Here is the input.
Amino acid sequence: MKIKNQLPFLLAILIASVGCKEVDDSPSKPSTLRNVFDDAFYIGAALNFNQINATDSVVTSLIGREFSSITAENIMKSMNIHPQRDTFNFGEADKFVALGEEYDMFIHGHTLIWHSQLSNWFREIEDSTEFAMATEKHVRDIVSRYKGRIHSWDVVNEALNEDGTLRESIFLKKMGEDYLASSFKWASEIDPETDLYYNDYNMTNLKKREGAIRMVKHIMDQGIKVDGIGMQGHWHLNYPSLEEIEQSILDYAELGVKVAITELDISVLPNPRDLQGAEISQNFENNERLNPYKEGLPDSIQVKLANRYRDIFKVFLKHKDKISRVTFWGVNDGQSWLNGFPVRGRTNYPLLFDREFKPKAAYDTIIALKKRFDSELSSN
Here is the structure.
């Protein structure tokens, strides 16, 4: 049974009635995520194919009003943007960048180097030197295309195992550990003004956190710039703990880099065998126990989700001086990859907007939290 609170519905009507592309700078500007968090950090969303192509003007307008940053969910991954060795598909990426520019957004590129969703032609290269040359060209060509237009990149994505050691990816096997520093070096040489990030999941886990810090420090010690660490926020109602999230932010910031909360979503569904993380190769068989909310989210779970977002955003606001960006992995529940991971065919509710793009209780809660935060700040 769904919550009967009419406030999210009324807010959705109010948002739809605004309908303008320009962000209102007047004193009475509406209480959108973009406006309310404007002085804290960028609020972003990952966009899918239809959203990038602006197939629904109402949804496009909502994205422009609510978010100050965008990330491409899939269209900039290797298999999509560089499907053949001598062929780039820049069309969708061009539209993505143009959309961000139209709405005056911070534009984040995802991702240059990732072992998953990798173009098949990479795997067909047997010679290590040839592989390294192809990898360098891949990075340089894409960064060159969007020099001065994409404001930050996930240069390397998910290079670590859970114990903090380097993942045995094709890049490590072919190029050795140097592929990490080289990737950041190539990107920085092409566009020295763009921010360069390392991005991974389970970044609140101690061993992985230590490994990430060790890896990034090693790159920086070579005089190669790393501007930030992306903590993928694929979290749950019950984990990770707020203490783990906060300590991770502090530890990464100690490196002297920015911290971005990336790919944020909060699953409300049980995971098989308490699976944590975002290793996309893992999938499990669907059953009733693992998919309990097919007909709608019970009021009690809706409240838990709102409270969880509130508590997490309290940590973010406490450390807003260290956080550059908070990006949700999708705009609405229907878009979320968590409907298919780690169990296909489930109905999940991890984001701030429901399947009709109406703001949920979690949306109202973090808006109210930020207003309270500002009020208390001004009274001190």
